[in-house]
Amino acid sequence: GGEGSDMSRPVKNKTQGFTLVELMVGLALGLLTVLVISQVLAMAEGKKRSVSMGSGAQVNGSLTLFTLQRDIQHAGYGIAQLPSSLGCLVKGKRSGADAFQFTLAPVVINNGTSDGPDQLTVVQGQTTGFSTPLTLTGDHGATATAFAVKSSFGVPAGSMMIAVPKLLGSGSTCTLFNVTHDATSPLTAIGPTRLPNGGGDAGPWNHSELFPPGGYVTDDLLLHIGSLVRRTYAVSSAHNLQLSELSLTSGTDVTQDLYPQIVNLQAFYGKDTDANGVVDRYDAATPTTNDGWKQVLAIRIAVVARSNQYEKDEVTASAPLWDVGTSATFADATPETCGASKCIPLKVSQLDQWKHYRYKVYDTIVPLRNVLWNS
Questions:
Q1: Contact 177, 205 (CB under 8 A)
Q2: pLDDT tens per residue, range 86-110
Q3: CA-to-CA dists, residue 132 to 155, 170, 224, 280, 294, angstroms
Q4: pLDDT score for 18
Q5: Alpha carbon distance 159, 178 (integer Å)
Q6: How many Å apart are CA 332 and CA 324, to the nearest integer?
Q7: Cβ atoms of 228 and 125 closer than 8 Å
Q8: What is the mean pLDDT of the chain?
Q9: Which string of b and e fits 41-74 if b means at least 16 CB within 10 Å?
């Protein structure tokens, strides 16, 4: 009875928890691991965005260059067939809209101010058949309603045409009009040697006040352009390639944005100054005479596309460079040496925080095919 039982003694619990120091060390290691992983993920995501945005800039730049090149290649159709008409000031108006005027040339460059983006205006005709100039066989007064021509073959009703003096002189103007057809009378119907240009619903482009006071005379010419295409490409304030196109249904320009993140557009005329059929000089001076326009055989363009990704660090230290080779002669630009070649800096410093973005230059030389084929 005097012996005690071990079961009656208290048992000491030997299991112990973490100390405060151990918990703090564990939390610190966990936070450090999360921080490293977060930085790695953020860096990887940043690189991914830079690559994807760079790819987007390449697409926008390529599409911009393709669009400009395609239109310039077709420029001058229906116009360049008559070299003596190049440079004429054309007056046009559609009923219900304001009158407008444009230079009769395949491509006109409007230079931007302070090395800013240029504008390109492309003019061409579009016909379902062929396009050849027609010669007048009689005078056409300013208020006359029909042209007498050697042959009206291939000109359907509704076709747009441009009346051109045989020889351009100081103050000469050309007139845009459309052909009408009213079979109720021989005087208003298209005939083998007659092209009416009456007014009304059938002739919305026919306005006597646009004709020269003396009208047009024998041996002057008519350019058959079918439908007039006049497009102007520019860089908008929102950094988009912008297209303004003449609407034939309203007689006004309709504007739309095409491709984003296009920040500069520069263009030069390629001119043959010694009449040997080869471009020997590039300049930005728009010709003012017919002889000057005959020298323009090509258009040289460069487009600067910007990545949409803002970089925390400055990734661009200077203006993007347009490599123009070593042999080309530029009259309105001073290329600088870049390695074994020569380059023209393309301004992007007008953009906010421009050094924090990446840029790529796309360039090409586009021959004016309709001018070359005609000559």
A1: yes
A2: 999 999 999 999 999 999 999 999 9
A3: 10, 26, 6, 30, 18
A4: 72
A5: 5
A6: 13
A7: yes
A8: 91
A9: eeeeeeeeeeeebbebbeebbebbbebbeebbbb
Check residue 280 and give its pLDDT.
94
- CB-based burial, 22-36: b 16+ in 10 Å, e otherwise: eeeeeeeeeeeeeee
Backbone angles phi, psi at 266, to 5 degrees: -125, 140
- Nearest partner of 152 among 129, 126, 176, judged by Cα: 129
Separation CA 42–CA 36 (nearest Å): 10
Place of tokens 């009703």: 157
Q: Mean pLDDT across the stretch 120-149? A: 95
Amino acid identity of residue 4, one-letter, is G
